[in-house]
Specification:
Chain lengths: 180, 427
């Protein structure tokens, strides 16, 4: 009886060969995710004063690249901003980070780790990202300018909530009617 | 288009955060939701009317062992931001790509294969996505397409010839007297000899009458006639075994990056047929695994195309009946039998052909076997099978069948056979 047999490594089959999609420029999805995660880790901790949560958020983005992850990150960012004093830099960086996460998820979410992102799509998405980011950062600036002027009466909040809820319902019904 | 779960979650979260921010008078909170909202609104406003249409086409040209290519033509509707493509083929890992959907485009597909024959390749699943991937169209499937992968031929310098050359013209010198180049003898001029064959010098030396100054008998030079060879290439398509012995019984897929016995048989048959056809000989093709009409021997480029088309479609089919006697072949033909000789059928045919007077070359197409994944019982069974096969091949040698291993320098083997002087060889 061979008592040392379990120490011998079992033969392993080589991985099967892969079909190739020949794009002019194809960037691996894992590279896009890793770059986005690195950018998040680089820009978020200095403004929130914490490393653990941004690291976890970046890891979540890399591992679970899904729109629901971005939704969770948005809630997390809202909680962070809500808990602290309003600061323009913090808000601007978080908006930038959330938008970056959204674009990353859009590009790599449907793909596996070894999937390819078309270079042309990367360029188009990057251009859209810049334009939207300019608009959103403008909104951030405007919001801080107008922050003191907003009414804080409860009745106003109720009206706004009802309006947003109605708009949301109308939007969802429109989407449902036009997509099924 | 369908709203994705992620898109719905993102939209709901964005609205919630916006509402909370506005309600609490915190624009710095509310503005966090703007990127998500912009994406969702833009996606709803610019959604594509239909999904992408994908057509997979094979590229023109002949596919040979190695790189196989195809093209996926992606036709998109306005509003499409991206199309998710997943390309898969049996025996391969699939590949995914997210390509821009701003205009119709052609995407190249390729894979590397060591296999030959007809395979179904390049199944493409496509899913159309709107801006931000918020809305998607139901996935569509295209393909796979049938692709014929031809074996790559290799050059052979010298080839064995049949015992008897039956043709009337060709590139080889036969033992028959006729039109040719090699000198045979000088004999008296006879009806049927051409005037230009008269050897005036010999005639003057042997039959000149010095008194009258006239020639008595004319002598003509005779040459060996040239002739072409008739070759029948017979492929044994009943076996298709790869290098991994654990896949012989069908428990595992045969890898696409490893050759099988049938790939070797196709390559050997194509190489030998091509070499004989290039030499001006007549080549035919038969299949031991199928009861269908063989490709009769003929020469020329069209015959090569005929043989190549038949060869690429040679494949094991069911469990063929045992033959009572060997297929009938043209008289005096050289028989090249490509088989693994894992059972008695092919060797029995070879012995019958040899007994009928054919010169028979048995090409062994069993690839080098790998036994890493066999258990003890399987390993013993394999040893027995290989031992039987070795005895079978020895018996063939004793019966006068010549053997060439296609995995071990076949050009050298064919060269040796071409140079061999065989008993009973009469050309």
């Amino acid at each position: 009886m061979n008592l040392t047999g379990w120490l011998t490594p079992a033969p392993r089959r080589r991985p099967r060969p892969q079909v190739r999609i020949d794009l002019d420029v194809g960037v691996p999805a894992w590279l896009v995710r890793a770059l986005a995660g690195a950018v998040l880790v680089a820009i978020v901790p200095p403004v929130v004063g914490d490393w653990v949560v941004p690291l976890l958020a970046a890891a979540a983005l890399v591992v679970l690249s899904h729109l629901a992850t971005v939704a969770g990150l948005t809630l997390l960012a809202a909680a962070v901003v809500w808990a602290g004093e309003p600061r323009l830099v913090t808000c601007a960086v978080l908006v930038l980070a959330l938008h970056l996460a959204l674009v990353t998820v859009r590009l790599t979410g449907p793909l596996g780790v070894a999937g390819l992102v078309d270079g042309r799509l990367l360029l188009r998405t990057g251009a859209t990202f810049v334009v939207v980011q300019l608009v959103v950062q403008g909104l951030v600036g405007l919001s801080f300018v107008a922050m003191d002027g907003l009414p804080r009466a409860p009745w106003f909040a109720v009206v706004v909530l009802v309006g947003i809820g109605a708009a949301l319902m109308a939007a969802l019904r429109w989407v449902a009617r036009h997509t099924q | 288009m369908i709203l994705t779960a992620g898109g719905a979650a993102a939209g709901f979260t964005a609205v919630t955060v916006l509402a909370l921010g506005v309600a609490a008078g915190r624009p710095d909170v509310a503005v966090l939701a703007v990127p998500l909202l912009v994406t969702a609104v833009w996606a709803a406003a610019h959604r594509p009317e239909r999904g992408a249409r994908v057509v997979v086409r094979t590229t023109t040209g002949r596919h040979e062992t190695g790189e196989v290519t195809a093209v996926a033509h992606v036709d998109v509707a306005p509003g499409t931001e991206a199309v998710l493509l997943r390309v898969s083929t049996q025996g391969y890992r699939s590949q995914e790509a997210l390509v821009a959907g701003d205009r119709p485009r052609e995407v190249g597909l390729s894979l590397r294969t060591s296999r030959t024959g007809v395979h179904r390749m390049f199944r493409v699943d496509a899913m159309t996505e709107s801006f931000g991937g918020v809305l998607v169209a139901p996935p569509t499937r295209t393909g796979p397409v049938e692709l014929a992968v031809h074996p790559a031929t290799r050059p052979l310098r010298e080839l064995p010839l049949p015992f008897r050359l039956a043709g009337l013209t060709g590139g080889h010198t036969s033992r028959r007297v006729g039109d040719g180049y090699e000198f045979h003898d000088v004999h008296e001029f006879a009806p049927g000899d051409r005037i230009r064959r008269v050897d005036w010098r010999v005639s003057a030396r042997r039959s000149l009458d010095v008194r009258t100054g006239r020639l008595g008998t004319l002598y003509a030079r005779r040459t060996f006639a040239t002739a072409d060879a008739t070759v029948m290439v017979v492929v044994d398509s009943r076996d298709d075994v790869g290098e991994d012995v654990s896949a012989w019984a069908g428990g595992a897929d045969i890898r696409m990056d490893e050759i099988t016995s049938l790939d070797l048989a196709r390559q050997a048959a194509a190489t030998i047929a091509r070499a004989y056809l290039d030499a001006g000989d007549r080549v035919g093709l038969d299949d031991l695994g199928r009861r269908r009409r063989p490709v009769p021997p003929a020469g020329g480029r069209h015959q090569w195309e005929r043989i190549a088309q038949r060869l690429v479609r040679v494949a094991p089919e069911g469990w063929p009946d045992k033959r009572r006697r060997a297929p009938q072949l043209p008289s005096g033909a050289l028989v090249v039998l490509c088989s693994t000789f894992l059972d008695d059928e092919a060797s029995r045919m070879a012995r019958q052909w040899r007994a009928l007077g054919h010169r028979v070359v048995a090409v062994d197409t069993l690839p080098p076997v790998r036994t890493a994944f066999l258990n003890g019982f399987q390993d013993t069974a394999l040893r027995l099978v290989l031992l039987e096969r070795r005895q079978r091949l020895r018996a063939l040698g004793r019966a006068g069948v010549e053997l060439v291993s296609w995995t071990d320098h076949p050009d050298v083997g064919m060269h040796v056979l071409a140079r061999a002087r065989l008993q009973g060889a009469r050309r």
